[in-house]
Amino acid sequence: MYDKLKGIMREANITQPELAGLLELSISALNQKINGKSDFTIREGKKLSSLFNKPLDEIFFNNPVHKTGNKSTA
User: Fold this and answer.
1) Radius of gyration of the chain (CA)
2) How confident is the model at residue 60, as a pLDDT?
């Protein structure tokens, strides 16, 4: 489910066992989270954001959030 996270892990050369240790999770628990069978906690999300130096939306969400100026559509 979290293909972006898997890609970020590959880029950073971090394995699931290494990441599980950093997040203080079992490998099985991390695998369930990565595959969408359970959710990451806020604490885990913040650790991932800090570890990979990326905002949460870049790690967890498929659709990029585009921030634009105050453009009125009226």
Assistant:
1) 15
2) 85
- What is the pTM (predicted TM-score) of this model? 0.76
How many domains does the chain contain in total? 1
Domain that holds residue 25: 3-60
> CA-CA distance, 1 to 5, in Å (whole number)?
9
Owner of token pair 């695998």: 31
> 3-state class of 15 per DSSP?
coil
Residues 12-50: tens digit of each pLDDT? 999 999 999 999 999 999 999 999 899 999 999 999 999
CATH number (domain holding residue 14): 1.10.260.40
Determine contact, residues 56/47, Cβ cutoff 8 Å. Answer: no
Residue 12 lies in a domain: yes
